[in-house]
Amino acid sequence: MELLSRPWPWYVAGPLIGLIAVAVLVIGNKSFGFSGNLRHMCAAIAPRGIEYFRYDWRRSGGWNLAFMVGTVLGGYIGGNLLAAPSVAIAPDVRAALASLGIHDFSGLAPREVFSWSSLLTLRGLACIVGGGFCVGFGTAYAGGCTSGHGITGLASLEWRSLLAVVGFFAGGMLATYAILPLLF
Q1: Where in the sequence is the domain holding 8, given as residue range(s)?
Q2: Can you give the pTM of this predicted structure?
Q3: How many domains does the chain have?
């Protein structure tokens, strides 16, 4: 049980993720990403008037929806049943976050950012809506999400996935060093 109560080292978790991606490609000729799952979910519940969601999601989306349910269930189990009381954060990162007004590191995520009282403010709603738009637009524009391009796309040696991953990291750096300080 101790193995499940602490993070696995990168040299174990990384190859396992890589093997899963290869297995998904070899066994089912499927891509391993999350944005496709959300599209199938929206196609299942969206009104038929939206052209982007007008396709037979049952034919290609069944395994994606099972993957999404497993991801949510695994996140719940990992975050609530197997989680450590707090996340180890480097002292220089703590200092940088403290300079932005984030001081509570007692859980898995800072409560100043991820509590309902924080999310239901004007700044919190702007972050949710703006972030959701950026993620939705970015995955549609890039033709997939970070997990799809970063795991399956790079394993397939796709040039566009390499460009997308470089763009994801550049966008993350820009958000971390330019946008996040403006929000806090």
Answers
A1: 2-83+121-183
A2: 0.63
A3: 1
